[in-house]
Every structure is written in C-alpha cells, then in structure tokens.
Amino acid sequence: MKRVIYALALICFLSSGKWSFCSEQKINDNSSIIEYTIPVEVGEKFQEFSSSFSYDPYENPYYVMKIMGEKLCEILPEELVGMLREMSKNKGPSILLIKGMPIDRIIPSNDSVLERSKKKGKVSENAMLGIAYIMEHKFYSNIKQQQGRIIHNVAPVKEYEHTSSSLGREPFLLHIENPYERVPPYFLMLLCLEEDQKAETTYFFINDFLKTFPISIIENMKQPEFRIFSGTAYSRVEERIVPLISEEKELEITRLRLCEDHKSSIEPLSVRAKETLHYIEKAFSNYKKSMASVKLKKGECLIFNNGWWINGAREKGVMHGRKGYIENPYRWIQRGYLYPQTLAEKLQIREHKKPGCVILPKRSQRIYDRDRKRFRHI
Ligand SMILES: O=C(O)CCC(=O)C(=O)O
Ligand SMILES: [Fe+2]
User: Which residues surround ligand 2, an ion (CB under 5 A)?
Assistant: First the structure.
C-alpha cells in the first residue's frame, strides 16, 4: 500500500510541471556554469499562452514583458526564478544555460533573417522579455545597431558573411560586448532558434585572467588612454576614449572593456597604453586554454555577465566569443542587451532626444487589458 502511495505521489510531482533538472559544470576551481532544463510541459504551457497573445513585443515591450514575466513567474520552477533573481543582483551564477526555453513551433528558413523574423510568431521574444522581467532588467539597444531593435538577430547576412561579427560566419575572438559604449550592456541573453553543427559560443572568466597581471599593468589599464571602436555590425563607426578598467562609483561596479582582437578595435594613445596592449595580447595566448564553449542548440538560452564585477571582488566578469566557421547559413540566435531597469529607461530617454530615432514607448502607457476588460497604466 505504502509503495502505491509513494508511486502516486511521484506521478503527481512529475506531472505538476515543476519538475526540472539543474546541474553545475565546473570549468575550473573558481568558475562554474549552471545548466537548467525547463520541463517540456512548462514550455508548452508558455508557448500556448504566448501564441494567443496579440501584442507585438517590438511595439509594446514594457507591456509584453510584464505580462510574460508574470506568466513565467507562475509556471517556471521556483528554483529557476530564484536563480535568475540572484544572478541579476550579481549573487548567483555569472553564466546560466537554460535548456528547453519556449520558442516558436515553426522557425522559417530559406530567406533573409529579417524576412524569417517577420514570418515567425513571437514566442521566443516573449520568453526573453519575460526572463528580463524576472531579472528586473530591461532590453536596450543603441539605435545604430540593428535599428535599435530590442532583440537582435545574430545570423549570417549576405554582405557581412566574411566578417567576425554578429552578422558574419567567421569565428569571433573573445570580447566584451560593445566596450566602446558609454554604458555597455550588463548582461547578454542569447537564445538559439536554429543551430549550427560547428559554431560554438565561447566564454572566459576575467578573474582567472587578470589575477596574474602585474599591478603596473592593472594601473595602466585604468588610464583613459585607449580609443575603442564599434564593431562591423554598426551602421556608423562609433568610438570613445576610455580606460580598459573603469570604476563606476554610482553602481559600485568595476568594468572591463576589451577585445582579444584589439588591433582592429583598440588604438593605444600613449606609450604605456601600447605596452599594456602588447602584454595583454601575450596573456590571452597563455590563458585561452581555460576558455570554455557551448554549442547552442534550438531552444537553448545563454545568459551571462558582460565583463563587470562588484568593486574589489572581480569574480563575476565574463568575456565571450564564437569559435568555428558557421556552416549553416540559417543559424539564428536572438540576442538581447540587458540593463538594470532605471538605467535602460535613462538611456532610452537620451536616444529619444536625438533626431531620426525610432520612438520607443514612454515610461507610462495606457493600455487595454483584454483579460480584465479595462484600461490600465503600465
Ligand atoms: O554567435 C555566437 O555564438 C556569439 C556571437 C556574439 O558574440 C554575440 O552575439 O554577441
Ligand atoms: Fe558578442
């Protein structure tokens, strides 16, 4: 009798939709990546909910993010919700791989990525926005990158195929995302819609790398003597003179701005800056052996810290890149740049003031809530 009760309890537990797998992979003694699998039934529940929702995430991102975030909080395993919240406060993992993320049942192929994205439903975008909501972050993109879309398409584009960029097929050396920006993204979210057999997303923990640098090099890196340029995927080249390591007093964080391929993207503006870049170049070749990678498959989502840490700690910063030539011309990854909510709003308001910008929703919107049959402010 007892056995029957246990078996029934187990069946109830498994069918509750909250059953999932969490595992931790150690890359070395200091750093680890957490892997989490969303139960199939939970993914399907979200897919169904999201498919019946008609608001466009590109037009009403704040509204969609709230609705999707609330839904995900309700159906995702508590453990995953907790982990995302911790991560956003720099307490949890600095890299999280979520498997089984809800994406659209049909992913169109045989067309340019913009056409495919128009033909596709919006389940994957809705899921990404929902995760951002749980993390209390918002997506923001510079207007000069993919027309300021909140979610980018990382996929080969004909004229850019030969480039090492988000639009190319060539390998992409380790980098911090958009290091030339006044405020680079805090986290990156990559969600795979169509995979490739060869290409792997690489990552590297800054802690291990900088630990062995002499103090004099670290001090040189703190000087604003480096001119950093934006990457190939920009509609116009942007540049900024910055230190490679900067302390942001207001948020009490320290940031690294660096690309392994510094020859084409960082210009040293002094003799000591030149020597510093030379030192870093050699250090990269020694430390690359601790670089790890993941071959993203359909429905797999990688969220990671973009090169910052709490002052003094240095444990959480991550650099990333891509290795292997992309063989599948339809490999498709959706990417979002995550910023703490108030910061994303400030950056967006700043963009609004520039002429010729896409108008993004204002902070407060009045919107008709179909379920509750009344207007509400968001
Ligand atoms: O294609 C990838 O796996 C990563 C590309 C990348 O660095 C990015 O999207 O920022
Ligand atoms: Fe990148």
Answer: 177
